[in-house]
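Propose amino acids for all 662 sites.
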């Protein structure tokens, strides 16, 4: 008998599940995610699930972790301060693919160097400027990223940069050619930059999680879920944290398939911070051919075609004063629900809410609180941000009392983005407490916070809502509407149609089965599998709105944790063969280009190298019974009635189930 442990660290909850022989769920448990130290929540969930199953930790043969940490960090703009080394490109290229925006003012060095399309050197690497840049910034960044022109055709300059970064700074370095074999320098640079920004966060999570598991008595190896739903070793995840973006959502797709047996459906997973929508087709998650997109960033990470929207149970509720009736909208920022913070600090929250209720004039920051998150690296903070953080200290404060000037709002925003400060305010989770859908935190605090929020005046001069229940329903209805938009956008994209049609008035009229002179009927034509702890509360209304079957599996609240242990290890390695002249075949390898005059020999050289690399990666990840598949994408052209070889891309996939500890 093999017992596997699946763990998922979400924005609000950390889930754990025990599965016997990949077929039966023995037990499941939830604990609050502890942002200041995620391992505390991991340990709590694991201890709970072991207690629920009444088994000893030593019998666990495999542990696997899926996480929304990287996804949420990119959506919320968090991560460490990094430096980008940009080789062979012009400074104007920094604007491509959002690279300049992603830098957020972090240092960048544009250097001479790089290679040509055929892998030959374009110009020498400017090592003098590189060394000066490294010496200047070695102490003020947490990690480095390097992207060189045509590094996928010849990585020599990226490899030399890696050596110098390690020698001079000792800091982690992310190289673009190690993360993607595709062309597209600025996009590869963006991928490397985001990888570098995530290194510290993921390394800390994995390290602490492994420590906690050992303390509990679990000695089995730990796996981590990638963004395509496959598994990799924890050491691989530390080096390539960017590959864990969409890890949690990808695991949920694998879990949805395992739970329902369905082969064709939309899968919508609502968490605390995001709603993730993907398509299950022929029993497998659809992979995004353009690379994973998270928030504003399009990366080169191979991942499920997942649409991540800043909409969840803990999304910030915004007041809309425009128009006579007013209203609310949700997200994309996550707040701590007032009900949750009141459960943790009732002596501060409850008297403050009561005092605000007694005032006659609504305040801008009514029902909003702030606290610091300790244990996170504060390198790179500005003096104003450090002062603000020190002022917060270890207490929970009314937001209005801690903000002294308008200019400090930018400091607060930066601290929230870095994960150093949390803001509490009204969220859908608070609305669910008021409506009786949830009763896990402080419902009285939620009711008072909604009462304060509802006092705001619309364009007609009327209050938004005179009682908390009315406002709670407005918030839940808005969540239903925005979830429906996300589902429609995913469906329209799959149909190769304009995603903006999701919000078009005719589409919205059709969802209501408009019947006048015109008859309009729109909706989804395939089932939706609703996942997440709050899906049972919110998604029946979504299914009714979309006019489709809504499948809510009993264990859908821990689908991510389930998917973490029923997946396979899959390692892919890709390479290219070009033809610099007729009759010559250039194989682009990690060690540099090699030329052949025999096409068969060239193909064998590349395939043998890729097969060895993919199998080695799968073995390192802990795969057993490895299977290898090879895909050849060969491009040719017709010239004077002759077929001429142009280019070939070879992809080798090595896969297997994780080895079980005995």
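Proposal:
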């Amino acid at each position: 008998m093999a017992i596997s442990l699946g763990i998922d660290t979400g924005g609000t909850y950390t889930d754990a599940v025990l599965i016997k022989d990949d077929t039966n769920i023995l037990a499941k448990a939830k604990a609050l995610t502890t942002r200041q130290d995620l391992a505390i929540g991991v340990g709590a969930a694991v201890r709970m699930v072991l207690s629920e199953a009444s088994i000893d930790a030593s019998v666990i043969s495999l542990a696997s972790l899926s996480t929304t940490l990287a996804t949420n960090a990119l959506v919320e703009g968090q991560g460490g301060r990094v430096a980008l080394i940009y080789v062979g490109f012009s400074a104007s290229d920094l604007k491509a693919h959002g690279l300049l925006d992603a830098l957020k003012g972090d240092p960048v060095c544009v250097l001479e160097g790089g290679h040509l399309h055929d892998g030959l050197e374009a110009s020498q690497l400017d090592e003098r400027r590189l060394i000066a840049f490294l010496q200047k910034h070695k102490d003020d960044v947490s990690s480095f990223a390097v992207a060189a022109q045509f590094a996928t055709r010849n990585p020599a300059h990226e490899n030399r940069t890696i050596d110098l970064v390690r020698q001079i700074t000792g800091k982690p370095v992310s190289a673009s050619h190690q993360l993607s074999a595709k062309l597209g320098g600025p996009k590869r640079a963006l991928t490397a930059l985001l990888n570098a920004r995530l290194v510290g966060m993921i390394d800390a999570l994995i390290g602490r999680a492994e420590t906690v598991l050992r303390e509990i008595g679990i000695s089995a190896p730990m796996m981590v879920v990638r963004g395509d739903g496959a598994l990799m070793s924890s050491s691989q995840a530390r080096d390539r944290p960017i590959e864990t973006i969409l890890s949690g959502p990808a695991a949920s797709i694998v879990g949805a398939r395992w739970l329902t047996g369905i082969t064709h459906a939309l899968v919508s997973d609502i968490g605390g911070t995001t709603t993730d929508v993907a398509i299950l087709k022929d029993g497998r998650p659809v992979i995004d051919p353009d690379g994973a997109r998270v928030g504003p960033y399009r990366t080169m990470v191979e991942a499920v075609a997942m649409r991540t929207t800043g909409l969840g149970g803990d999304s910030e509720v915004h007041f809309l004063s425009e128009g006579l009736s007013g209203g609310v909208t949700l997200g994309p920022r996550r707040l701590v629900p007032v009900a949750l913070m009141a459960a943790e600090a009732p002596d501060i929250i409850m008297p403050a809410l009561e005092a605000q209720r007694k005032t006659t004039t609504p305040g801008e920051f009514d029902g909003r609180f702030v606290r610091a998150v300790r244990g996170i690296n504060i390198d790179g903070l500005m003096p104003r941000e450090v002062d603000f953080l020190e002022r917060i200290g270890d207490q929970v404060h009314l937001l209005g009392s801690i903000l002294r000037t308008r200019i400090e709002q930018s400091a607060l925003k930066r601290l929230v983005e870095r994960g150093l400060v949390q803001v509490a305010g009204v969220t859908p989770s608070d609305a669910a407490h008021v409506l009786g859908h949830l009763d896990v935190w402080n419902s009285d605090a939620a009711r008072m916070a909604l009462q304060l929020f509802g006092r705001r005046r619309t364009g007609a001069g009327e209050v938004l809502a005179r009682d908390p229940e009315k406002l709670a329903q407005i918030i839940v209805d808005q969540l239903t509407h925005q979830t429906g938009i996300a589902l429609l956008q995913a469906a329209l994209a799959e149909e190769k149609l304009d995603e903006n049609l999701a919000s078009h008035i005719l589409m919205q009229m059709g969802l209501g089965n408009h019947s006048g002179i015109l008859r309009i009927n729109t909706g989804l034509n395939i089932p939706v599998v609703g996942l997440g702890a709050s899906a049972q509360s919110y998604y029946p209304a979504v299914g009714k709105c979309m006019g489709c079957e809504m499948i809510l599996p009993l264990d859908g609240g821990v689908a991510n944790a389930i998917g973490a242990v029923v997946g396979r290890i899959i390692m892919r390695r890709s390479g290219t063969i070009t033809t610099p002249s007729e009759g010559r075949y250039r194989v682009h390898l990690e060690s540099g280009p090699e030329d052949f005059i025999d096409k068969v020999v060239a193909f064998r050289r590349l395939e043998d190298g890729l097969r060895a690399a993919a199998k080695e990666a799968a073995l390192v990840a802990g795969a057993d019974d490895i299977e290898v598949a090879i895909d050849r994408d060969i491009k040719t052209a017709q010239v004077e009635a002759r077929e001429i070889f142009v280019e070939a891309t070879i992809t080798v996939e090595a896969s297997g189930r994780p080895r079980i500890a005995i």
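Residues 568-658 form one domain. The first strand starts at residue 3 and ends at 9.
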